[in-house]
Amino acid sequence: MNTMKYAQDHPGDNVLLESIGGVVDDVLESAIVAHLDRCHECCERLERLAADADRRSTICQSLVREATATRSSDVGGWSTLEDFAVGFLQPSDHPGAIGRLGEYELLSVIGQGGMGIVFKGFQVELNRPVAIKVMSPHLATVAVARQRFKREALATAAIVHPNVMPILAVNESATQLPFLVMPFVACHSLQQRLDATGALPIVECLRIGVQVTAALAAAHKQGLVHRDVKPANILLERGIDRAMLTDFGLARAVDDATLTRTGVIAGTPGYMSPEQARGESVDARSDLFSLGSVMYAMATGQPPFRGETSYAVLRKVTDHRHQSIRSVTPSVPLWYATLVDRLLCKNAADRFGNANEVQELLEVCLTHVQQPGAKLPAELTHPKIGRRIGVIAILVVMLAILIGVMLYRPTKQAIPEFEVPAISDSLDDELRSLADDIESFDAEVTRPFDDLSIPAPTPEGNLQ
Amino acid sequence: MLNPETRPSLIVRLRDSKDQSAWWVFAQTYEPFLQHLVSRLGVPAHHVPDVTQQIMIAIAASVDKWSNDGRDASFRRWVHTIARHSVIKFMSGVRRHPAPIGGSDAVAVLESQAQRDDPATEQQYDHELVVWAADKVRHEFAASSWQAFTRTMIDGEPVGDVAESIGVSTGSIYMSRARIIARIRQIIEGVMQ
Predict the structure, then answer these.
(1) To 5 degrees, how large is the angle CA A184–CA A190–CA A196?
(2) Where does a domain end: A364, A381, A398?
(3) Could you report how far apart the first and last alpha carbons of chain A are, in Å?
(4) Which of A145, A217, A412, B168 is deepest in the core (most CB within 10 A)?
């Protein structure tokens, strides 16, 4: 029956549209195709319905051009890093150099960072090896990217600290690609280390943690928030145990309002704080959250918030609690997990007050790990006392209210209705007084409960 | 390269939550195209995420200037216009000095006389959009359907010949290629509208 359909008639536009959308059943589909086999007019109508003639021809022309281009040669551009480098370097007489950039001889490519390429270089005049970070030419055409590069130089120059990679020189002329000059240090990033070895031993986590926290404390003291604390921005010097915080390209002064005004945030979703992810203004405590994520990643080998897309990660950062550190790696000590949990509190006020405080705690922890006799900080061993009292208080209050409701109501309503007060006089009084007791208890408990529900001990207020 | 862990992201604070979700829908469809475009402009693979990111930030920054004109899909149209404009501006920049030569004043001179509305750049933008869309939908179709489409519409072989060589009817070739064209059109409209 259906196969006979469209033997004579032409299918309507809506039927053809449905078949283009692939929402017709097999029987109808074969009837339509059978009709198309015989009816050229309907084939043309079908094509028009798929896309109007103009659009169809632009699509086809583009694909034809593309097919010819692919066959003949590839599109221009740099296929290799060397091609890229050659594009902007001046020739060099120095043996072994790949080229010259201003007063620097470039020797080799160390790596490719977020914003550009890092070269190992040599400053002839001062006879010293340097690392030179050259901005990608494509980013150099984007104004915001140039600003970011400049900001990195300015921010870093403001912080002199053994755990902050210093910047020796900046070139930001309009005619050249912007570049930053840093001391040459044989190092790899914490990210590379985690990729290669997975989770680190606790003593390593603490050693690195202490130094990163010290660097943050130094930045915060200058009123700067790093805003992009993540393993890729932590460099580990080879041979010695030095960790250095780098890439202050997103760093801003705490009171800098530009961010909230434009409403744009750059950062790395996996290590971002919830307030940063929401586009709210951030302060030093945002860096503490990111530090918590780094501490989590070091101990488990994976960041606390993961997802398929950056948006999914952001949602997790803002809305979901991280998976407990000890459920990922059971060997992590409870006190370490407690510390990380505290750093990863969604509410900035629930985190530690400042980086100095965290640094001190981490130092005590490090001593404890290295000399097992040494005591751990009390707030990490009995962290939840405050919270537990809060929970108990809530339960007591709820129970009291429940009892109150169960007992109090019948006495109040039922008795006057029946007008037989003599029967349960004593019981009634007893219940009334009990209910009153509960009420006063309730009032008493509610106030302290407010204080108890905030687990953070006192220092926060005055250190902010 | 597209690992969300390492790729920076951005968010826009728009007052209206409807606009905010419209932004996310846009970002999710536009970003992959931008990545395609940026790498096709010759940006080394390692820099593609960052360049893309910076352009997205530039777009997002302009989005903030949006004001409702009261017509349908006002925000959506605004975003697409802004995006197209920002990207074409970026492309003209790359075209002018794909690899700036250190110390040359020529670049600064070129930069000062910035030409907008370079028709070649706009053409390239539209071209890349089609190439990207075709690439994106390709896996949705059977190999034989795709072959029917390319051979008849791109290589210009007669429908009858291709039908015979693949072993299908001419009607089914028309059907396949209509479906493919319709999908490519949809994808492009998702980014262009």
Answers:
(1) 110
(2) A381
(3) 81
(4) A145
- Looking at A326, A356, A381, which one is the last position of a domain? A381
CB contact A265 to B (< 8 Å): yes
Put simply, the chain B residues between 41 and 80 with a CB less than 8 A from any chain A CB are: 41-44, 46-47, 50-51, 53-55, 57-58, 60-61, 64
Q: Say how far residue A80 (Cα) sits from the centre of its chain.
A: 31
Using one digit for the tens of pLDDT, what is the confidence trace for B62-80?
A: 766 667 676 766 777 777 7
Residue type, A80: T
Q: State whether A124 and A264 are in the same domain.
A: no
Does one domain contain both A200 and A307? yes
Q: Are residues A357 and A222 in the same domain?
A: yes
**Residue A21, domain extent:** 2-72
DSSP of A59-120:
HHHHHHHHHHHHHH---SS-SSHHHHHHTTPBP--STT-SEEETTEEEEEEEEE-SSEEEEE
- The residue among B33, B34, B50, B82 with the most chain A CBs within 10 A of its CB, best to mutate, is B50
Interface predicted TM-score of the whole assembly (ipTM), two decimals: 0.77
pLDDT digits over A78-100, tens only? 445 555 555 667 777 777 778 88
Which of B64, B127, B169 is the closest to A263 by Cβ? B64
pTM for the full model? 0.57
pLDDT given at position A390: 60
Q: Which of the residue ranges A74-83, A139-148, B152-161 would you say has the lowest mean pLDDT? A: A74-83
Which residues of chain A does B130 touch, with a Cβ-Cβ cutoff of 8 Å?
Answer: 58-59, 62-63, 66
Measure CB to CB from residue A144 to each of B57, B126, B155 and give the nearest one.
B57
Q: A404 or A462: which carries more pLDDT confidence?
A: A404
Tell whether A177 and A197 lie within a shared domain: no
Q: How many domains, chain B?
A: 1
